[in-house]
Write a structure and sequence with these properties.
The complex is a heterodimer of chains A (359) and B (71). Chain A contains ten helices and 15 strands. Chain A is α/β, with parallel strands linked by helices. Chain A has an eight-stranded mixed β-sheet. Chain A has a three-stranded antiparallel β-sheet with strand order 2-3-4, covered by helices on one side. A two-stranded antiparallel ribbon of chain A has the order 1-5. In chain B, the strands form two sheets. In chain B, strands 1-2 form a two-stranded antiparallel ribbon. A two-stranded antiparallel sheet of chain B has the order 3-4. The chains are: A alpha/beta (359), B mainly beta (71). Chains A and B meet through strand 7, strand 8, strand 9, strand 11 and helix 7 of A and loops of B. The structure holds iron/sulfur cluster (SF4) (2 copies).
Chain lengths: 359, 71
Amino acid sequence: MKNNLHLSSEVIFNSGITRGVIIDTIRRELFYIDNSFIRILELIEKDSNESFEKMVKLVPLPELHKFFDFLVENELAFYSKGPGEFKRIDTSWEIPLEVINGIIDIDTDFSFYEKALSEFEKVDCRELQIRLFSDLDLTEFQKLVTIINQYEFHYVEIHLVKNSYIPEEEIRRVIENVWFVTNILIYGSEDNKIVRVINDTGDYFQISLGTISYLKQSLKQNGCGSISQHTFTWSKDNIRENISHNSCLNGKISVDRSGYIKNCPSMAKNFGNIASVSFRDVLNNNEFRGLWLINKDKINICKFCEYRKICTDCRAYLDNPDDIYSKPLKCGYDPFTARWEDWSTNPLKLKAMSVYGLV
Amino acid sequence: MEKLTLEEKKLDELGMLPINHSRIYSNLVTDINEENKLIRYSSKYNTDLLRSGKPRKIISKTINYSLFDEE
Ligand code: SF4
Ligand code: SF4
């Protein structure tokens, strides 16, 4: 190589059982390549003196040049005159938080709501999802909002079932007035639409305060866990986390509709009721934390998948409900054929679907 | 990304800008008073926090995320 070739710092790559993939995390683009070129990318990354000789042994020279041109054309790599100081993306992951996010499910019993919020605050959880499964009346809804406004979170989203008691103006008012509530989702709506709550500032650029998402689908607890290309993550922070941790459950703590503390409300295993057990006790429990460390490399089938660094996970709905290392049930991708199919019509999944009450 | 306009510039108009800035987007300025409302002092963290429109990562997967592709 006359000049030195470097991979762009925003680019990562991964091999799978049938093909490899280059991931441009900035442009959110995937480039599929033969696995032999993954070895070439590893050598480019190493940037040692012998790299080029090793590359030529792996791939014929004209093909190698074509591959370099492809990388440069797509701005996945660039040349420099000297070795330079081009740092590659750091894949280690650290965060100064123990709890990253939480879920509170509420049906008709609100008695544990305040206790749950105070527990979330105590463990410094900044991001929260509140899922309200029953038809609330306006007073109940306003009460829940007034209570949460006494706490300090950074991001809260509220999932609601559509009803006629809470007018849209009220939902808007919440986003306008409660600083950390920026997304409200309303299930069972007539249409799928996303309405931005805009702060209309005349000739100035409009500031979006949040969104109200109207969704036709119904809010069901066993509706969680679907994996598709739309749930892939492109943030480098998330990708780094995925490499060493479980992308959904790491740093998550949840309270189900009966007040039981769980990794996720859809899971059967609970770690005690919030009425008598603190989050601190649960966070010290090895079984609870063990799930945080199940990364895709430990999961059957996913470990062969080229998407494993960007894919999110689900440990509540599994192909084999008795095996915690089993592939997510609601993923229709087969890394052995490189095809996406509708998971819900796969006859091999029927048994697991009936265990989870999905058929 | 509403109201963002793509500016087409010739190379010599870019002056000393680094070459990797070959696409430049511009938009109307925001009203600083309104923008300030997105920032809040947190006594807990002893710092200013910016209002967050999205979670750090997907919290749960109950919705059809294909609807949010443009977001
Ligand atoms: S583990 Fe599955 S069911 Fe639980 S929150 Fe994550 S995606 Fe949803
Ligand atoms: S096989 Fe696993 S890693 Fe691949 S897309 Fe499905 S869930 Fe994600």
